[in-house]
Design a protein that fits this description.
Layout (H helix, E strand, L loop, with lengths): L1 E6 L9 H11 L6 E6 L7 H12 L5 E4 L15 E4 L4 H5 L2 H18 L2 E4 L2 H8 L10 E3 L21 E5 L7 H7 L6 E5 L4 H9 L4 E4 L4 H10 L2 E4 L8 H9 L3 E4 L4 H5 L4 E3 L4 H13 L1 H14 L5 H16 L2
Parallel strand pairs: 1-2, 1-3, 3-4, 4-5, 5-6, 7-8, 7-10, 8-9, 10-11, 11-12
Helix pairs in contact: 1-13, 6-11, 9-12
Length: about 325
């Protein structure tokens, strides 16, 4: 059986998490499944670029088609009986104006879901969000398959620095909630390690609140792994996530996590994180201080996190995808 993975054309200086996700999946696929990767020849912007991407995809189908990333619209041009569509989340709909929301809802969600045999998403929370925009009769198509964790990450013991802990923050987009995190740690003796491009507003807030911080961008996988290992705790108090990979990555490495009590994050974290209200600065602050000051609680989070992370084995997740592919090839 042959599977073709359709992926968007990568833009410079962007972190394409979905591509890395399926790199992990492909590395553990059973030997009876051959695959190729078909990368779009154009960026996904503008009507004609998207039309060309779709037509090109139509002529490059295989026994099973798997559409990943931000080009779900090409599903409309593919054989629905042998197509799997992965939708990480529907966050773009939440931010769109009413007219654009209708367009996105039709071409990025409703029609592609209608055409595909299976739609995979990465959490129960993402499924619930998706169901807001599609006909309920298509719910049976939706399969929850979690995100696999990198096999490059391993547990690394570290003595917690209670005097001046390093708090690691992955990501700087608006949903990552940087301003509230900064407010929450104001006056706390710590170093905030931020991975991602900071905008001027975020820099101004950091300086206004006298935060001791470091910033890095465009890290390799090895460099990012070292950031986890050097951290004392990981803060991930996002206001919107389809999954929340830094939660699991931190748990594997053995770092306590403070994350949000909404959407996918409690589902992903299990019992291995302190859950806080991401819209309440005081709640974020109390969660971080509890991890810093309560040794027993911190150790319990670390141990629970290590157990929780076992749910996201790349081999198990690859086998779940293989099962879907086989069911389509037998149709």
């Amino acid at each position: 059986m042959k599977v073709v993975f359709f992926q968007r054309k990568p833009r410079p200086h962007k972190n394409f998490s979905v591509e890395m996700l399926f790199d992990q999946v492909r590395s553990y696929l059973p030997s009876d499944i051959e695959y190729k990767i078909h990368i779009a020849k154009h960026y996904s912007n503008g009507f004609f670029n998207r039309l060309f991407i779709s037509i090109d995809a139509m002529f490059n189908q295989s026994d099973v088609n798997h559409v990943t990333g931000d080009i779900g619209f090409i599903t409309i041009f593919l054989s629905g009986k042998k197509t799997v569509l992965t939708m990480l989340d529907v966050g773009s709909l939440n931010d769109a104006n009413p007219i654009m929301k209708k367009i996105l809802q039709w071409f990025w969600v409703q029609w592609p879901v209608y055409k595909a045999s299976y739609v995979t998403t990465i959490s129960e929370a993402s499924k619930k969000e998706l169901l807001k925009y599609i006909n309920v009769k298509h719910e049976k198509k939706i399969q929850i398959i979690y995100v696999p964790v990198s096999d490059q990450l391993i547990y690394v013991a570290k003595t917690f620095n209670e005097d001046c802990p390093v708090i690691l923050q992955i990501g700087t987009k608006q949903n990552k909630n940087i301003p509230r995190l900064i407010e929450a740690i104001k006056g706390v003796n710590c170093t905030l390690e931020i991975v991602g491009v900071l905008n001027q507003s975020q820099i101004d807030i950091l300086e206004l609140n006298n935060i001791n911080y470091r910033n890095s961008v465009n890290l390799t996988n090895d460099e990012l792994r070292k950031k986890y290992e050097e951290a004392d705790l990981v803060a991930f108090v996002s206001t919107y996530e389809g999954f929340g990979m830094p939660i699991v990555e931190a748990q594997i490495v053995g770092r306590p996590v403070v994350t949000s009590n909404i959407l996918s994050m409690p589902e992903v974290a299990g019992n291995g994180a302190d859950l806080v209200d991401p819209f309440d600065v005081e709640s974020i602050r109390n969660g971080i201080l509890r991890v810093i000051n309560d040794t027993n609680y911190r150790e319990k989070l670390i141990e629970a996190g290590k157990i929780n992370a076992e749910r996201f084995s790349a081999k198990d997740i690859a086998n779940q995808y293989a099962k879907l592919y086989r069911s389509l090839s037998n149709k």
